[in-house]
């Protein structure tokens, strides 16, 4: 690994690999093919925007551990991981995006050479970038292996954060604070949505004097006027306008660790409707924050939130949060537990979640969200953006 | 569709659906489940950052055409498509990222209700976001259907661009011109990589006075010094430095249409090595550009390039280009043809490709790339960034 790029000690990586091997043992796996780019990074440090072609980290219950990817990315694997050269294995370029041959077929040959082709192999059947064809290529070329689904096996190992991970997430929290200060400095009713997105991106990547901003796994989502009734809209050149409300769903990132934080912004004098929801959501957050303690279940947190919301006459038909940390596009969530009433996962100290009591209502919407670390005394926010409806006249 | 968001006429969308249905007929398909977000957009206009959860467009050889996705995205589907409400079908939120139930199981029930469960169904086995579990959920819940691989079926229909599509790509070309002007204005040896990335992002999203910049499907890739020997590295806070070279691999986008354009930048007085490669690559581009004519194969273009390069003593072991147009993260390529010697695809008028004669050498690298439209008189560049080593003293 290029030393300047080292984000964690070698012993932290070793511990992660050890934890993963233990979980593999419990699941009866000899070998795990790890496709999720965040899992690849967490296990080895590998960091590059190369996940648009097939690549993986292969980890064994023995000491097997190698990076597998496209030839033009192998130098990058050397710069960002501690793997020896012999454990950085590349496939030839004509396997890239070919209808006739698949990189997983070439991997099958490598597993055969390594006498790993008769093993119990875990694959991430529903993690990003592991396609149906990748799976079927493996099934066809490794007839003597047994495959089982290990989706989220590594993701679950990532749930409780180390102190270095928390430190990166707090750094991301400082950056998102700067981003909101900048938004309030520059936003005007004449501004266009894309200009606001440009300002947000610039501030988030610039970071603070002490820490650079990394790219975030989701681009700024700006729900302006009627678009606030839905999710995941991005931007065009629409003018923000006078007397208009919008939610801004954004994050900052540092060393791939994220701190999402959404706020609602009103340009003009907010209508009573906005002020009412602001009050309700803030009460919901206050009450729910206390629940982010070790021993409490995700379902209990969710129920606390949904009940408080209902008391005020509002309903929300979707989950109110999910775990966060290290991630790559298309999602900054970790895809393990969810804050929904049916989720029985028990919270542990230093788990980190994006508490997301967003309301997408009839013709408008409201978002105030917080990124939270679970502590003995309840949820601690990773960022300190004023928890209020942001107003600019 | 919200009228201000209309990017193409209704008849252009109808034509695309018609072309797709014809290709389905040739492939013997009654139904096609379209997961690739770019294909979903191309067929219906749907545009949102919602592809981190399972979603698709289902198109039939009859008049079946519906959007299927998560409940919180259905209003967005109404704002960005012309589909009637009855053809915007959502699954309940507890299907999101659940280990026990899968959105494709819920889709299977819908297909049964619509009497489409015994059909010949195409699935995009190797397009983005169609996971192994999505496929297996369909196989298990639709035992009376027959499935076949339709990866890239829609992507191929997108290869030849309409005049409106070309107009958007030229707009993206104007934006990338502005981005490079801005880079040369602001870059200094004291600047950090993340600061350069922030400036690039700001300029690309701001766009021109006439046109907004959309987010690009890949973030700025900055290959500084030894990182230029590899691909897909992003940024940290390393100082660019005096007498240092770097490639900048970026694009601009408008209405999701992309124009990638890479250049190499030298801060200081370029070494003879840089000047030599600059001359070689420019000759390679000149010679190859003439080949981007209807009737020429991808293989012939690639051979022309590789032979010219070899004449000068350089070798490149990876493809030198790929088709571009409408796209979403993680890739701005269309994943159909490739500019490699073995590819026999015949170029047609108004196909668009990113010609990518990048050299990743021993300890350094060089990129000058062009986005090109195929015309009767050879390749026409979609942007007009000076084709030279960019130098700032």
From TrEMBL, chains A, B:
Keywords assigned by UniProt, alphabetized: Hydrolase
Record domain Creatinase N-terminal: where: 16-160
What the entry lists under InterPro entries is as follows: Creatin/AminoP/Spt16_N, Creatinase/aminopeptidase-like, Creatinase_N, Pept_M24, Peptidase_M24B
Q: Which GO terms describe its molecular function?
A: hydrolase activity
Q: Record's CDD domains? A: APP_MetAP (cd01066)
Q: Which residues form the Peptidase M24 domain?
A: 168-376
| Pfam families registered for this protein in UniProt | Creatinase_N, Peptidase_M24
SUPFAM superfamilies assigned to the protein according to its UniProt record, in alphabetical order = Creatinase/aminopeptidase, Creatinase/prolidase N-terminal domain
Q: Where is this region: Disordered?
A: 1-20
PANTHER family from the xrefs? AMINOPEPTIDASE, XAA-PRO AMINOPEPTIDASE P-RELATED
Name of the featured protein: Ectoine hydrolase DoeA
């Amino acid at each position: 690994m290029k030393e300047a790029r080292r984000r964690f000690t070698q012993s932290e990586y070793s511990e992660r690999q050890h934890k993963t091997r233990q979980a593999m043992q419990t699941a009866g796996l000899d070998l795990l093919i790890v496709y999720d780019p965040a899992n690849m990074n967490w296990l080895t440090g590998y960091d590059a925007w190369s996940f648009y072609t097939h690549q993986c980290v292969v980890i064994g219950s023995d000491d097997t551990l190698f990076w597998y990817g496209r030839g033009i990315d192998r130098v990058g694997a050397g710069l960002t991981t501690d793997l020896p050269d012999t454990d950085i294995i590349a496939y030839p370029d004509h396997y890239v995006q070919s209808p006739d041959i698949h990189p997983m077929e070439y991997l099958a040959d490598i597993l055969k050479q390594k006498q790993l082709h008769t093993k119990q192999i875990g694959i991430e059947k529903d993690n990003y970038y592991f396609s149906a064809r990748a799976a079927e290529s493996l099934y066809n070329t490794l007839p003597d292996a047994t495959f089982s689904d290990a989706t989220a096996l590594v993701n679950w190992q990532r749930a409780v954060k180390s102190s270095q991970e928390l430190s990166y997430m707090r750094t991301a929290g400082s950056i998102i604070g700067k981003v909101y200060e900048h938004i309030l400095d520059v936003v005007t009713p004449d501004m266009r949505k894309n200009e606001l997105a440009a300002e947000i991106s610039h501030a988030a990547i610039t970071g603070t004097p002490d820490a650079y901003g990394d790219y975030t796994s989701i681009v700024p989502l700006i729900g302006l006027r009627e678009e606030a009734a839905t999710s995941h809209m991005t931007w065009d050149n629409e003018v923000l306008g006078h007397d208009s409300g919008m939610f801004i769903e954004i994050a900052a990132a540092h060393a791939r660790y994220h701190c999402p934080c959404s706020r609602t912004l009103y340009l003009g004098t907010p209508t009573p409707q906005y002020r009412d929801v602001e009050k309700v959501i803030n009460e919901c957050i206050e009450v729910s924050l206390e629940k982010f303690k070790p021993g409490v279940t995700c379902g209990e947190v969710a129920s606390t939130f949904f009940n408080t919301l209902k008391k005020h006459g509002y309903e929300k038909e979707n989950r109110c949060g999910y775990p966060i940390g290290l991630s790559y596009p298309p999602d900054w969530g970790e895809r393990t537990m969810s804050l929904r009433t049916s989720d029985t996962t028990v919270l542990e100290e230093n788990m980190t979640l994006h508490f997301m009591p967003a309301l997408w209502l009839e013709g408008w919407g409201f978002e105030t969200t917080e990124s939270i670390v679970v502590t003995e005394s309840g949820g601690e926010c990773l960022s300190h953006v004023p928890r209020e409806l942001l107003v600019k006249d």
